[in-house]
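chain below, 440 aa
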Amino acid sequence: MTDLDAVLGNAGPTGLKERIAAELAAVRERSLAYTDADDDLLVRQHSPLMSPLVWDLAHVGNYEELWVLREVGGIEPLRPEIDHLYDAFRHPRKDRPSLPLLGPAEARKYISGVRGRVLDVLDQVDLTDPDPLRSGGYVFGLVLQHEHQHDETMLATIQLSRRPGLVRDGELPPGRPAAEPEVHIPGGVFTLGTDGGTDTVAWAYDNERPAHRLYLPGYLIDRHPVTNGAYTEFIEDGGYRDPRWWLPQGWEWAERNGVEAPLFWTRDGGAWWRVRFGREEPVPPDEPVQHVSWYEADAYARWAGKRLPTEAEWEKACGGRTYPWGEADPGRLGRWANLGHRAARPAPAGAFPDGASPYGVEQLIGDVWEWTDSWFQPYPGYRCFPYEEYSKVFFGETHRVLRGGSWATHPSAVRTTFRNWDYPIRRQIFAGFRCARSEE
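prediction:
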């Protein structure tokens, strides 16, 4: 079976087009919901780390125009004069508020006009064309994942604004304690990465490819991500005041910025509180900790006598499947993972036993992005596609890899091979971690 056959299944190209159209409508509904706010909230910059929300809104439309309308549809540019404004590599985020950006109403009109033409291209394009952008609807998977990724970025921006909204206290399953807090992963050869496969894996990014075999010695990995309760023990034991647990650059960063707890946490008497989308609430001890940097995660792991897993160890713990539980799409049922903003928080540790990998490791997908010990580097045999600015320009020893997605990640934008990356100082993202240790 070819990758394309796997994507099309029994539905054929027409069925795939219908699915893409439905996914395009759903992601746009999400984007518009996150930007359904007063203009002041949309045009203001809430942190130099983030763009104004109105920039993200127009950017997703400009990206769609570039790749679907111009590259695949051969359509003349609609607004060529704004291309430079929404080029993520031309203007740093801190400078974007000073640009002549489209206002909220104009941005909505622009992205709506682009989307109408995109649907026309979808109706006409041959998804069996061997061209790599057309084959299996890859270009549509590209723009779908891109918009969902920016939607998660928008949520991080809204959280940084500390203004109420979009809390979504949806139902989540209760947690359960682990009889064995660690899982043993035996040594051996396994396959890291993907060459494409079933469903959304055929839309995998270039940095996830090619699949390649490598040997890993045996190791142990935490069954669940580290919880707020466990992390509080690190704080109470003086973890932020003891340089023994920190890399020198991490210690310097924490000292310079006065970091004493995860972002959005404050101490009130003997209790810890957090701000979540403008709401102050006690820190739940059984939820995975989030809004911690790589440096904080690494320091905790050292304090605990462990380390962060490499991304290869993290992926091997998933068991070699599209998702740890198998091939079933996590968007169809909520029994396997906490994804797609069903609730604006991580689920308690142990909430998704049905989502465990064959090894018994749980909550690898959803809840919090998990920092790994790996730098973001290309795989052997890497080939850039379709543009260098997605992956290639970030390779090196500046960005650490995160895996697994968060509660804010859409199911179409996460899988066991998906690689995220960020600077080790970043805390505004919905990131946590789990620990590992080498086999004795």
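Residues 1-11 have pLDDT under 50 and may be disordered. Residues 309 and 436 are 5 Å apart (CA to CA).
thats it, cya
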